[in-house]
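thought: fold this chain, then report.
action: predict
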Amino acid sequence: MGFTANTNIEKNFFVDSIAPESRGTTVSVLDMFPSDVASKIYVHDTKIHDANFAFLTTTLAKLHNKLYEPLYFITYSKDIPVNVGGGFVDYVSYYTVDWAGIMNEFRNVVGNSANYIPRVNAGLNQKKVNVYTFEVAYDLRFVELEKMKKLELQKSIEDIYKNAIVAGWDLFVQKIAYTGIQGKTGLFNDANVSTTMIDNNETTGSGFEGMSDQAIVSWFNGMFSYYLKNSNMNISIIPDTILVPTFVGSDLSGRMNTLYTATLRSFLMTHNLAIDEGSDIKLTIQSRNDLDTLGTGGHGRIVAYKKDESFVRIDMPYPMQHYITLPNIDKMSYTSAFVGQVSEVQLPYNSNKNELGVVSYWDFSK
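observation:
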């Protein structure tokens, strides 16, 4: 018995037994459903699988991974030295020293007939400022956390929440630093800082508007002279930071020299009495909108001081940071807590508004 191969090749390649001519009429989706329904059936913007038959989901829309978060800006860290560390506390305290019996041209002069030597004494005064605790938390539900894993974003949801918390903390600290909270004061409105009026009643607008460039330069040099005269020419306390209302900053930057190579603001920072008297200060003049309505009568205030931790500072015993994360079964979520501590502004060399202090206020009369 042998095997005989069948070499006849038929043209019918269909796998079923129904001949093409006997298949009947083809029915489309449009014949089975109304047109408004049929147009939506099997129309997708996704691909089921790739060339290797791995299932995937892609969209025809282009996704920008960048997150457009709210924008904010703070300036307190540019104006005030910040002392960080120390852990959780109730207060920040420091000591000031008073001298008694200090020598001058009339006392403590000892000659051949002197039979008494005066004594010198010193006293310590403890001062303390409040510390504020900032606490905030967020809940991240288990289900939402799983959903977020499907999104391809620049940041995790945890980072998004953290950015919101840090923004709230920064704005909270700036309020404490500049004007204080809960009836307290800050750098711009401390009751122990001396205040001098700027007579601008003859000006045509707010601040220095209408005053000549020469008059403005003269005022700045007069402010430096006030420090030098009342401190026996102590150049170590001469202000290197001048904070002004926004309308003053705009005015100073809008005044150009005849060659249009420098503004009046730039000129004042490099040509002033403090530098001529031997100080190596690098003067900065910056605008702050909180000063627009401060001062006597609310007409604007200029704040001058030496930016140094010995004269102006705030403490952050516990900077804002993540403290703990725990599961919350009641809410089916993770609860993350953040905490930070910040003190009030400290001005150790401003103890009385009737005496010279490192920080000084200059208020416009109108």
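thought: worth noting. The two ends are 125 Å apart (CA to CA).
final: tokens above.
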